[in-house]
Specification:
The protein is built from 7 helices and 9 strands, in the order βαββαβαβαβββαβαα. It has 245 residues and is of the alpha/beta class. The protein has a single domain, classed as Rossmann fold (3-Layer(aba) Sandwich). The protein has a 7-stranded parallel sheet with strand order 3-2-1-4-5-6-9, sandwiched between helices. The longest helix is centred in the middle third of the chain and has 25 residues. The radius of gyration is 17 Å and the shape is globular. The structure holds NADP nicotinamide-adenine-dinucleotide phosphate.
Length: 245
């Protein structure tokens, strides 16, 4: 599928990888961005090709409202949904600053809202001869690190959701895709990690993946992580506990 003249719903276009996806897609496509804050759109991109619906993805009512507005804006359907927004809370369960309420919020943004958007927008995607759902995943969904246990679990759940729905939708025009990312230089990783890759290059790889139709893609160091995990899950686990991607 060539990403030209398409209508695409994107979450998290305000920041990081989502912001680069937005800037690389607008102009040739119409993007409907869902995040709490409106994205800043750099000239010379055509501002009229980006619609923003202020949405709190941690709040089911806000997600439902966004789905209704998208249907009003796009009565002829949409060509794709990119679930990019996520949060990663670092405090460990044993830490003094760990917030019990953060568990539900992290799961809602990272897992529940992608599932709700797919469910709520499926009929809009089925109106098109071909459509895609793209879930932005992480190497941490393959092998968890010791911090951010809920984040890692939510990404593993997103992988299972993607593969489960891929089987459910195999007879339809909707394709379920995902990419597993290594450490990327974005606001989410400010002040931690090394050897980060740029969010612009990740956005470019995601766009090429959507266009080629590749269902699952491991980016950068995740390729090696998956190979090691296949041969020795114990070794992959040890690498991640030492601070891998
Ligand atoms: N950075 C990495 O190293 C890395 C590695 C692997 C995978 N990933 C994945 O890549 C994707 C993008 O991450 P990033 O690093 O680009 O993150 P980021 O720069 O922190 O951006 C996160 C985005 O999510 C939105 N968001 C957060 N909470 C929200 C809420 N409650 N409601 C609506 N929107 C919300 C934010 O917008 P508002 O604050 O305006 O709402 C923002 O646009 C995520 O799925 C992440 O898991 C990142």
């Amino acid at each position: 599928m060539k990403l030209e003249n398409k209508t695409i719903v994107l979450t998290g276009g305000r920041s990081g990888i989502g912001s680069d996806l937005l800037s690389q897609l607008i102009g040739q496509n119409t993007i409907i961005n869902l995040s709490r804050n409106a994205p800043a759109i750099a000239a010379p991109a055509r501002k009229d090709s980006c619609r923003h619906i202020s949405t709190d993805l941690a709040d089911a009512a806000s997600v439902a409202g966004a789905i209704s507005k998208i249907k009003e804006l796009c009565p002829d359907g949409i060509d794709g949904l990119i679930n990019c927004a996520a949060v990663q809370f670092l405090p460990q369960f044993v830490a003094d600053d760990f917030e019990h309420n953060s568990i539900a919020k992290e799961i809602a943004v990272n897992f529940t809202s992608p599932a709700e958007l797919i469910s709520g927008l499926l009929d809009s995607m089925l109106k098109r001869p071909e459509a895609f759902v793209f879930n932005v995943n992480s190497g941490l969904g393959i092998v968890p690190k010791h911090e951010s246990a809920i984040y890692c679990a939510s990404k593993a759940a997103l992988d299972n959701l993607t593969r489960g729905l891929r089987a459910q939708l195999a007879h339809t025009s909707v394709r379920m895709q995902q990419a597993f990312l290594p450490l990327v230089d974005t606001p989410m990783t400010t002040g931690r990690g090394s050897g980060k890759i740029s969010s612009a290059s990740v956005a470019g790889q995601i766009i090429r993946q959507i266009e080629s139709g590749t269902l699952d893609l491991d980016i950068g160091k995740v390729k090696m992580l998956r190979s090691i995990n296949r041969i020795s899950p114990a070794l992959a686990h040890r690498i991640m506990q030492k601070g891998g991607s």
